[in-house]
Amino acid sequence: MVKKLENFIKKSYLLLIFIFLYTPILALIIFSFNDSKTMGKWSGFTLRWYADLFQNERILQALFFTVVIAIISSVIATIIGTLAAIGINKMKGPKKALLLNINYLPVLNPDIVTGIALMSLFIFIRPLTKLDFGFTTMLLAHITFNIPYVILAVLPKLRQLPENIEDAALDLGATPAYTLRKIILPQIKPGIFAGMLMAFTMSIDDFVISFFTAGPGVTNLSIEIFAMARRGIKPEINALSTLMFVTVLTLLLIANRKEFLSRGDKIEKA
């Protein structure tokens, strides 16, 4: 009886958490089909906001820059962050502790501090590099603040590796490059993938750093939505958010389905 009560409490608590998390998203999805421009009144079912979305060049341009910068910055940050994590993991003593603390600073720093610092840096090097504010500066800023998150995602997987795995590979005749490609990277692949997803999500979600490093003609969804907030969020944003949520959910279901099938195959072979 006590166990049943505990299970009921645990399930109820978990259900409340999911309700708290997903009720706002559900409300957004419902009102993306609302015929009214305001979310305070239901005026009937419609799909016109989805049609208007694909005719709104401003939102589509912001979406294009958002996705392109997120993809490029997450890939580059993943490569740099993974190599940096491998190097940090090989260090010992005060040097390792110092680098880890330096890596924590951008994560713990308020975004506004990082955004102003990057803006100041680009202004300082502008006479030397002739680098104007725009796509390149925003991309460099996103790469910069994504790298620490990739490092933090990869390091735990490196710590789980056997201590002598590299030495064993080198003793068997493998070169350092071959050991890295065929032994180390496959073992830490989940951490690398998690770091890339985190970097991609952070890049899409970012507003403050993008706001301080963007230039004329370059914007992203967060900046565009912030500009709309003064006049009221357009219903097209609800439609766009719904499509993004459905796309991410579909990709997660496909990825989990593949993992589930692969585990089933391993169990059958065993």
UniProtKB/TrEMBL annotation:
PROSITE patterns, per this entry? ABC_TM1
List, alphabetically, the InterPro entries matched. Bact_Polyamine_Transport, MetI-like, MetI-like_sf
The membrane-spanning stretches of this chain are 12-33, 59-86, 107-127, 133-155, 237-256
Q: What UniProt keywords are attached to this protein's entry?
A: Cell membrane, Membrane, Transmembrane, Transmembrane helix, Transport
| ABC transmembrane type-1 domain boundaries | 63-255
Name the Pfam families for this protein: BPD_transp_1
Where does this protein chiefly localize? membrane
GO cellular component annotations of the record? plasma membrane
Compartmental location: Cell membrane
Record bears the keyword Transport: yes
SUPFAM superfamilies listed in its UniProt record: MetI-like
The family assignment reads: Belongs to the binding-protein-dependent transport system permease family. CysTW subfamily.
Please state what the protein is called: ABC transmembrane type-1 domain-containing protein
Q: Which organism is it from?
A: bioreactor metagenome
